[in-house]
Design a protein that fits this description.
Length: 419
């Protein structure tokens, strides 16, 4: 598949990752602020789940459209337009009072994310050589995770000291980083821009590309979505578990939430080194299964703690597994998808994962109305492990098929000695 020709454009990678990190901080700043406001006002799990659903549904529903936009429209125009729109919407959230208006604005904010997410994800492989892809992926993920790490912690501090309006105003400013990145990044794709040379038969390959036609990619995405769907309810349950069951403050809640993100950041760099040594995509997918198992185990272990701060080391380990799996998934997808179809590919993977997470949010919100957080977390961890075990056989079958295909291609490429 096509990557940047010549040397890697690390300045562009830096701009893209910085924009992603700052905008992600704004996303989480707004989401955590709204979650804390709902919990403090006495709203139940269903209200928190409704806001999370509003923040997730556009990423799923709009994926077919935004993926094609990312491939067909100039990436610069998309980043500038979406960044300006998100900034205005987040500023509106700071002054919105009616719950229905808040939910509508959250959905609009997520619609902007549905555009910028595949645009930035597809730009990064076009900026670097294949050998540099794991490092660039780790950098991109690091920036995102720093945003996720600082967003909840900053929200906990600002909400406690200044109320909900100030953090939402700061979030509105953060989206302008996307506008700046759109103006400064030299690498462009979509529209009339081509960052790489044309491949033989590329047009037909791009037109016919479908996720379901690649068994290995399909198995990887299905496994990830299945596990996220079962443990995704933890995102709704966590605020009630930490603040009510364990009696922690808003600041401690932000610290606990950030611990998983810090682990993701560390895991991205640790496993990026391993990814560079794997030329075998099937091997990366198999390693991803083990890392997902680690995430599920940490969720299960978290119910044993008597105090919220003890969740920090557990979440760190779980986040490291999460970060490694993210790097492996992004590297495998970028290697196997034609350059001109990567926007669709990243949007499709994002839609599958976010759709599964949405199911988890809904289930978590409904169950919190009838039972306590601790047994629900046990159920999430056990269900995640069971789903993972159920996917072991399909993944192995896809791995065998992939390795058989690679072997057959190698034999066809080997010249037959003349007699």
């Amino acid at each position: 598949m096509s990557f940047a020709s010549g040397s890697s454009r690390w300045s562009d990678v830096g701009l893209a990752t910085a924009a992603r990190g700052i905008a992600t901080c704004g996303d989480l700043l707004a989401a955590t602020t709204l979650t804390l406001a709902l919990q403090s006002s006495g709203a139940g799990g269903s209200a928190v789940a409704l806001v999370l659903l509003a923040a997730t549904l556009p990423l799923v529903v709009l994926a077919p459209l935004t993926g094609r936009l990312a491939d067909r429209m100039d990436s610069r125009k998309l980043l500038i337009g979406a960044g300006l729109a998100q900034s205005a919407i987040c500023l509106g959230l700071a002054y919105a009072g009616h719950p229905l208006l808040v939910i509508c604005l959250v959905a609009l904010l997520a619609s902007g994310l549905a555009v910028t997410q595949p645009v930035l994800s597809a730009l990064v492989p076009a900026m670097v050589r294949p050998a540099d892809l794991p490092r660039a992926t780790a950098l991109n993920q690091t920036a995102g995770m720093i945003g996720v790490l600082t967003g909840p912690a900053l929200a906990g501090f600002l909400v406690g000291g200044f109320g909900t309006r100030t953090p939402l105003q700061i979030g509105a400013v953060s989206y302008l980083a996307l506008v700046l990145a759109g103006l400064l990044i030299r690498t462009r794709r979509g529209g009339g821009w081509r960052t790489v040379s044309a491949e033989t038969g590329a047009a037909a390959t791009v037109a016919n590309w479908r996720l379901r036609r690649d068994p290995l990619l399909l198995a990887m995405v299905a496994t990830l979505a299945g596990v996220v769907g079962t443990i995704g309810a933890i995102n709704v349950i966590e605020v009630f578990y930490v603040r009510e069951t364990l009696g922690a403050s808003a600041a401690v809640y932000g610290m606990v939430t950030g611990a998983w993100t810090l682990g993701v950041l560390c895991g991205a760099w640790i496993f990026a080194r391993l990814a560079r040594r794997f030329a075998d995509d099937a091997g990366l997918v198999q390693c991803g299964l083990l890392l997902l198992g680690g995430c599920c185990l940490m969720v299960l272990v978290s119910v044993t703690v008597p105090a919220a701060l003890l969740l920090v080391p557990i979440w760190l380990v779980g986040g490291m597994c999460n970060g490694g799996d993210n790097v492996f998934n992004n590297v495998v997808l970028a290697r196997r998808v034609p350059e001109a179809a990567r926007g669709r590919a990243f949007a499709a993977m994002g839609a599958a994962v976010q759709g599964a997470a949405m199911v988890g949010y809904l289930i978590g919100g409904l169950l919190l109305e009838v039972t306590e957080p601790r047994p629900l977390i046990v159920g999430c961890g056990v269900a995640g492990l069971l789903v993972l075990l159920g996917f072991v056989r399909p993944v192995r079958r896809a791995v065998r098929a992939e390795r058989a295909r690679v072997t057959a291609d190698a034999e066809l490429a080997t010249p037959v000695p003349a007699r």
